[in-house]
Design goal:
This is Proteasome accessory factor B. This protein is α+β, with helices and mostly antiparallel strands. The chain has a five-stranded antiparallel sheet with strand order 6-5-4-3-7. A four-stranded antiparallel sheet has the order 9-10-8-11.
Protein backbone atom coordinates (compact mmCIF):
# COMPACT_ATOMS: atom_id res chain seq x y z
CA UNK A 1 0.00 0.00 0.00
CA UNK A 2 1.36 3.42 -0.96
CA UNK A 3 2.45 5.68 1.87
CA UNK A 4 0.22 8.72 2.36
CA UNK A 5 1.50 12.28 2.22
CA UNK A 6 0.96 12.68 5.98
CA UNK A 7 3.14 9.64 6.73
CA UNK A 8 5.79 10.79 4.25
CA UNK A 9 5.98 14.23 5.87
CA UNK A 10 6.27 12.68 9.33
CA UNK A 11 9.00 10.35 8.09
CA UNK A 12 10.84 13.35 6.64
CA UNK A 13 10.64 15.24 9.94
CA UNK A 14 11.87 12.18 11.85
CA UNK A 15 14.79 11.78 9.46
CA UNK A 16 15.89 15.43 9.61
CA UNK A 17 15.56 15.55 13.40
CA UNK A 18 17.71 12.47 13.85
CA UNK A 19 21.01 14.03 12.75
CA UNK A 20 22.80 17.34 13.13
CA UNK A 21 24.26 16.99 9.62
CA UNK A 22 22.86 18.51 6.46
CA UNK A 23 21.42 15.75 4.26
CA UNK A 24 21.36 15.97 0.50
CA UNK A 25 18.12 15.53 -1.41
CA UNK A 26 19.43 12.28 -2.88
CA UNK A 27 20.22 10.84 0.55
CA UNK A 28 16.78 11.86 1.78
CA UNK A 29 15.24 10.14 -1.23
CA UNK A 30 17.09 6.93 -0.35
CA UNK A 31 16.30 7.08 3.37
CA UNK A 32 12.75 8.38 3.77
CA UNK A 33 9.84 6.03 3.14
CA UNK A 34 7.54 7.50 0.51
CA UNK A 35 10.16 8.85 -1.90
CA UNK A 36 11.66 5.62 -3.17
CA UNK A 37 8.79 4.98 -5.58
CA UNK A 38 9.18 8.26 -7.46
CA UNK A 39 8.91 7.52 -11.16
CA UNK A 40 11.77 9.86 -12.12
CA UNK A 41 14.21 12.41 -10.75
CA UNK A 42 11.85 15.16 -11.87
CA UNK A 43 8.91 13.57 -10.06
CA UNK A 44 10.95 13.30 -6.87
CA UNK A 45 12.12 16.91 -7.17
CA UNK A 46 8.54 18.16 -7.50
CA UNK A 47 7.35 16.05 -4.58
CA UNK A 48 10.27 17.06 -2.36
CA UNK A 49 9.82 20.74 -3.20
CA UNK A 50 6.11 20.57 -2.23
CA UNK A 51 6.98 18.77 1.01
CA UNK A 52 9.62 21.37 1.95
CA UNK A 53 7.16 24.19 1.37
CA UNK A 54 4.47 22.41 3.37
CA UNK A 55 6.78 21.85 6.33
CA UNK A 56 7.77 25.51 6.32
CA UNK A 57 4.10 26.53 6.12
CA UNK A 58 3.51 24.38 9.22
CA UNK A 59 6.25 26.27 11.06
CA UNK A 60 8.92 23.57 10.90
CA UNK A 61 12.33 25.35 10.88
CA UNK A 62 13.79 23.65 7.80
CA UNK A 63 17.31 24.94 7.02
CA UNK A 64 19.58 24.61 4.00
CA UNK A 65 23.36 24.63 4.03
CA UNK A 66 26.48 23.03 2.60
CA UNK A 67 26.98 19.41 3.62
CA UNK A 68 30.63 20.18 4.40
CA UNK A 69 33.07 23.05 4.08
CA UNK A 70 34.77 21.19 1.26
CA UNK A 71 31.60 20.78 -0.80
CA UNK A 72 29.20 23.15 -2.51
CA UNK A 73 26.38 20.57 -2.51
CA UNK A 74 23.29 21.82 -0.66
CA UNK A 75 21.70 19.84 2.13
CA UNK A 76 18.78 20.08 4.54
CA UNK A 77 18.18 19.73 8.27
CA UNK A 78 15.74 20.87 10.95
CA UNK A 79 17.01 23.40 13.49
CA UNK A 80 16.30 21.41 16.64
CA UNK A 81 16.83 24.39 18.99
CA UNK A 82 14.03 26.27 17.23
CA UNK A 83 11.88 23.17 16.72
CA UNK A 84 11.82 21.86 20.28
CA UNK A 85 9.50 23.37 22.87
CA UNK A 86 10.67 24.69 26.24
CA UNK A 87 9.33 23.10 29.43
CA UNK A 88 5.58 23.66 29.62
CA UNK A 89 2.77 22.94 32.04
CA UNK A 90 -0.35 21.30 30.60
CA UNK A 91 -3.88 21.29 31.90
CA UNK A 92 -5.56 17.87 32.17
CA UNK A 93 -7.46 18.24 28.88
CA UNK A 94 -4.32 19.44 27.08
CA UNK A 95 -2.33 16.52 28.48
CA UNK A 96 -5.03 14.13 27.23
CA UNK A 97 -4.75 15.58 23.72
CA UNK A 98 -0.98 15.19 23.78
CA UNK A 99 -1.40 11.58 24.94
CA UNK A 100 -3.56 10.86 21.88
CA UNK A 101 -0.86 12.27 19.62
CA UNK A 102 1.82 10.23 21.38
CA UNK A 103 -0.19 7.03 20.90
CA UNK A 104 -0.38 7.70 17.17
CA UNK A 105 3.32 8.64 16.98
CA UNK A 106 4.30 5.44 18.75
CA UNK A 107 2.22 3.21 16.51
CA UNK A 108 3.95 0.23 14.88
CA UNK A 109 3.25 1.70 11.43
CA UNK A 110 5.15 4.93 12.12
CA UNK A 111 7.76 3.36 14.35
CA UNK A 112 8.79 0.78 11.75
CA UNK A 113 9.07 3.46 9.05
CA UNK A 114 11.17 5.66 11.33
CA UNK A 115 13.48 2.83 12.36
CA UNK A 116 13.92 1.84 8.72
CA UNK A 117 14.97 5.38 7.88
CA UNK A 118 17.50 5.39 10.76
CA UNK A 119 19.04 2.12 9.54
CA UNK A 120 19.43 3.55 6.04
CA UNK A 121 21.08 6.69 7.39
CA UNK A 122 23.53 4.69 9.50
CA UNK A 123 24.34 2.42 6.55
CA UNK A 124 25.12 5.52 4.49
CA UNK A 125 27.55 6.78 7.12
CA UNK A 126 25.34 9.52 8.51
CA UNK A 127 25.79 10.20 12.22
CA UNK A 128 22.41 9.61 13.90
CA UNK A 129 21.59 11.17 17.27
CA UNK A 130 20.11 8.05 18.86
CA UNK A 131 19.59 9.62 22.28
CA UNK A 132 17.19 12.30 21.00
CA UNK A 133 15.93 10.52 17.92
CA UNK A 134 12.15 10.38 17.56
CA UNK A 135 12.61 6.89 16.18
CA UNK A 136 13.90 5.62 19.51
CA UNK A 137 10.37 4.94 20.72
CA UNK A 138 8.64 1.63 21.21
CA UNK A 139 5.15 0.73 20.15
CA UNK A 140 2.35 0.95 22.70
CA UNK A 141 0.31 -2.18 23.47
CA UNK A 142 -2.27 -2.97 20.84
CA UNK A 143 -5.17 -2.63 23.25
CA UNK A 144 -4.44 1.08 23.76
CA UNK A 145 -3.93 2.10 20.17
CA UNK A 146 -7.58 2.61 19.26
CA UNK A 147 -8.42 3.15 15.63
CA UNK A 148 -4.99 3.04 13.96
CA UNK A 149 -5.83 0.41 11.31
CA UNK A 150 -8.79 2.50 10.16
CA UNK A 151 -6.70 5.68 10.26
CA UNK A 152 -3.97 4.27 8.03
CA UNK A 153 -6.44 3.01 5.44
CA UNK A 154 -8.40 6.27 5.44
CA UNK A 155 -5.27 8.38 5.01
CA UNK A 156 -4.19 6.22 2.07
CA UNK A 157 -7.63 6.59 0.44
CA UNK A 158 -7.64 10.36 0.98
CA UNK A 159 -4.16 10.67 -0.47
CA UNK A 160 -5.20 8.63 -3.52
CA UNK A 161 -8.51 10.47 -3.94
CA UNK A 162 -10.69 7.34 -3.70
CA UNK A 163 -14.03 6.60 -2.04
CA UNK A 164 -14.29 4.28 0.96
CA UNK A 165 -16.72 1.82 2.52
CA UNK A 166 -16.59 0.96 6.20
CA UNK A 167 -18.71 -0.16 9.11
CA UNK A 168 -19.70 2.51 11.62
CA UNK A 169 -21.89 2.78 14.68
CA UNK A 170 -23.46 5.97 16.00
CA UNK A 171 -22.98 4.98 19.67
CA UNK A 172 -20.90 2.31 21.39
CA UNK A 173 -24.04 0.28 22.04
CA UNK A 174 -25.46 0.62 18.51
CA UNK A 175 -24.92 -2.03 15.82
CA UNK A 176 -22.46 -1.41 13.00
CA UNK A 177 -23.87 -0.17 9.69
CA UNK A 178 -22.08 0.09 6.37
CA UNK A 179 -21.34 3.63 5.18
CA UNK A 180 -20.11 4.83 1.80
CA UNK A 181 -18.15 8.08 1.90
CA UNK A 182 -16.07 10.32 -0.34
CA UNK A 183 -13.36 11.17 2.23
CA UNK A 184 -11.98 14.72 2.36
CA UNK A 185 -9.70 14.54 5.38
CA UNK A 186 -9.03 13.40 8.94
CA UNK A 187 -8.75 16.04 11.67
CA UNK A 188 -8.64 16.15 15.46
CA UNK A 189 -10.92 18.03 17.83
CA UNK A 190 -10.82 17.94 21.64
CA UNK A 191 -8.49 14.95 21.58
CA UNK A 192 -10.62 12.87 19.18
CA UNK A 193 -10.03 11.91 15.54
CA UNK A 194 -12.76 12.54 12.96
CA UNK A 195 -13.21 11.64 9.31
CA UNK A 196 -14.93 14.34 7.26
CA UNK A 197 -16.44 13.66 3.86
CA UNK A 198 -19.50 13.39 1.65
CA UNK A 199 -21.84 10.56 2.64
CA UNK A 200 -23.11 9.37 -0.74
CA UNK A 201 -26.16 7.55 0.63
CA UNK A 202 -27.38 10.61 2.55
CA UNK A 203 -26.04 13.08 -0.03
CA UNK A 204 -24.68 15.27 2.75
CA UNK A 205 -21.46 16.24 4.51
CA UNK A 206 -20.88 14.05 7.54
CA UNK A 207 -18.29 13.58 10.30
CA UNK A 208 -17.39 10.16 11.70
CA UNK A 209 -15.45 9.57 14.89
CA UNK A 210 -12.63 7.16 14.11
CA UNK A 211 -13.10 5.22 17.33
CA UNK A 212 -16.50 4.12 15.99
CA UNK A 213 -15.23 3.06 12.56
CA UNK A 214 -14.42 -0.61 12.10
CA UNK A 215 -11.16 -2.00 10.73
CA UNK A 216 -12.89 -3.06 7.52
CA UNK A 217 -12.15 0.14 5.57
CA UNK A 218 -12.09 -0.59 1.83
CA UNK A 219 -11.09 1.97 -0.79
CA UNK A 220 -12.70 1.78 -4.23
CA UNK A 221 -13.12 3.80 -7.41
CA UNK A 222 -10.58 5.44 -9.71
CA UNK A 223 -7.58 7.24 -8.26
CA UNK A 224 -8.20 10.98 -8.15
CA UNK A 225 -12.00 10.67 -8.37
CA UNK A 226 -12.52 12.29 -4.93
CA UNK A 227 -11.37 15.81 -4.18
CA UNK A 228 -12.07 18.11 -1.25
CA UNK A 229 -13.88 21.28 -2.37
CA UNK A 230 -11.59 24.30 -2.22
CA UNK A 231 -13.99 26.32 -0.05
CA UNK A 232 -14.34 23.63 2.65
CA UNK A 233 -12.60 24.01 6.03
CA UNK A 234 -12.55 20.59 7.68
CA UNK A 235 -11.67 21.98 11.10
CA UNK A 236 -14.69 24.28 11.06
CA UNK A 237 -17.00 21.42 10.06
CA UNK A 238 -15.83 19.23 12.93
CA UNK A 239 -15.95 22.07 15.45
CA UNK A 240 -19.52 22.93 14.47
CA UNK A 241 -20.60 19.31 14.61
CA UNK A 242 -19.09 18.94 18.08
CA UNK A 243 -20.56 22.21 19.35
CA UNK A 244 -24.06 21.77 17.97
CA UNK A 245 -24.29 17.99 18.02
CA UNK A 246 -27.67 16.62 19.04
CA UNK A 247 -27.98 15.25 22.55
CA UNK A 248 -27.85 11.50 22.21
CA UNK A 249 -29.92 10.96 25.35
CA UNK A 250 -29.77 11.35 29.11
CA UNK A 251 -28.43 9.28 31.97
CA UNK A 252 -29.42 9.02 35.62
CA UNK A 253 -26.35 8.62 37.79
CA UNK A 254 -26.30 8.21 41.56
CA UNK A 255 -23.51 10.28 43.07
CA UNK A 256 -22.29 9.94 46.64
CA UNK A 257 -22.80 12.93 48.93
CA UNK A 258 -19.93 15.39 48.72
CA UNK A 259 -18.42 13.54 45.76
CA UNK A 260 -18.56 13.64 41.97
CA UNK A 261 -18.48 17.42 41.56
CA UNK A 262 -17.74 17.06 37.84
CA UNK A 263 -20.85 14.91 37.33
CA UNK A 264 -22.96 17.33 39.35
CA UNK A 265 -21.82 20.22 37.15
CA UNK A 266 -22.76 18.30 34.01
CA UNK A 267 -26.34 17.53 35.08
CA UNK A 268 -29.22 18.43 37.33
CA UNK A 269 -30.01 16.88 40.70
CA UNK A 270 -33.47 15.30 40.49
CA UNK A 271 -33.72 13.58 43.86
CA UNK A 272 -31.82 12.47 46.95
CA UNK A 273 -31.46 8.75 47.51
CA UNK A 274 -29.60 6.38 49.79
CA UNK A 275 -27.86 3.57 47.95
CA UNK A 276 -25.90 0.66 49.41
CA UNK A 277 -26.06 2.34 52.80
CA UNK A 278 -24.66 5.65 51.57
CA UNK A 279 -26.37 9.02 51.16
CA UNK A 280 -26.29 10.59 47.73
CA UNK A 281 -28.17 12.23 44.88
CA UNK A 282 -29.53 11.16 41.52
CA UNK A 283 -28.13 13.44 38.83
CA UNK A 284 -29.72 13.57 35.37
CA UNK A 285 -27.04 14.25 32.77
CA UNK A 286 -27.60 15.14 29.08
CA UNK A 287 -25.31 12.93 27.00
CA UNK A 288 -23.73 13.68 23.65
CA UNK A 289 -21.00 11.05 23.87
CA UNK A 290 -21.75 7.78 25.67
CA UNK A 291 -18.08 6.79 25.59
CA UNK A 292 -16.96 10.04 27.19
CA UNK A 293 -19.57 10.08 29.96
CA UNK A 294 -18.82 6.41 30.66
CA UNK A 295 -15.16 7.26 31.24
CA UNK A 296 -16.13 10.15 33.54
CA UNK A 297 -18.45 7.92 35.60
CA UNK A 298 -15.91 5.09 35.76
CA UNK A 299 -13.28 7.54 36.95
CA UNK A 300 -15.31 8.18 40.11
CA UNK A 301 -15.26 4.51 41.12
CA UNK A 302 -17.76 3.57 43.83
CA UNK A 303 -18.85 7.22 44.24
CA UNK A 304 -20.88 7.11 40.99
CA UNK A 305 -23.32 4.41 39.87
CA UNK A 306 -25.31 4.45 36.63
CA UNK A 307 -29.01 3.85 37.23
CA UNK A 308 -30.09 4.20 33.61
CA UNK A 309 -29.82 3.50 30.75
CA UNK A 310 -28.56 -0.07 30.98
CA UNK A 311 -26.40 0.42 27.87
CA UNK A 312 -24.35 3.07 29.66
CA UNK A 313 -24.08 0.91 32.76
CA UNK A 314 -22.73 -1.93 30.63
CA UNK A 315 -20.08 0.38 29.10
CA UNK A 316 -18.99 1.57 32.57
CA UNK A 317 -18.80 -2.00 33.87
CA UNK A 318 -16.74 -2.98 30.83
CA UNK A 319 -14.39 -0.02 31.34
CA UNK A 320 -13.86 -0.89 35.00
CA UNK A 321 -13.37 -4.58 34.20
CA UNK A 322 -10.74 -3.76 31.58
CA UNK A 323 -8.93 -1.47 34.04
CA UNK A 324 -8.94 -4.22 36.65
CA UNK A 325 -7.60 -6.68 34.08
CA UNK A 326 -4.71 -4.33 33.25
CA UNK A 327 -3.80 -3.81 36.92
CA UNK A 328 -0.67 -5.62 38.17
CA UNK A 329 -1.45 -9.04 39.57
CA UNK A 330 0.39 -8.25 42.80
CA UNK A 331 -1.55 -5.03 43.41
CA UNK A 332 -3.14 -4.77 46.83
CA UNK A 333 -6.88 -5.23 46.60
CA UNK A 334 -9.21 -2.67 48.23
CA UNK A 335 -9.77 -3.33 51.90
CA UNK A 336 -6.78 -5.67 52.27
CA UNK A 337 -3.90 -4.93 54.60
CA UNK A 338 -0.60 -3.91 53.10
Amino acid sequence: MAISKVERLMNLVICLLSTRQYLTAERIRESVAGYEDSASDEAFSRMFERDKNELRDLGVPLETGQISRFSTVEGYRINRDRYELPDIDLASDEAASVAVAVQLWESPELTSAAQSAMLKLRAAGVQVDTENSPAAVTAVPSRSRGSEPALGKLLAAIDAGRSVRFSHRSTPAAPFRERTVEPWGVVTHSGRWYLVGHDTERDAVRTFRLSRIGDDVVAFGPVGSVRKPDDVDLGVIVARAAASGDVAGSADVWVSEGRGLELRRLGTEVETRDLVGRRGSVVRIPVRSWEWIARVVAGHGADAIVLSPTELRDIVVGTLSESAHRAPTDAVSPGSSS
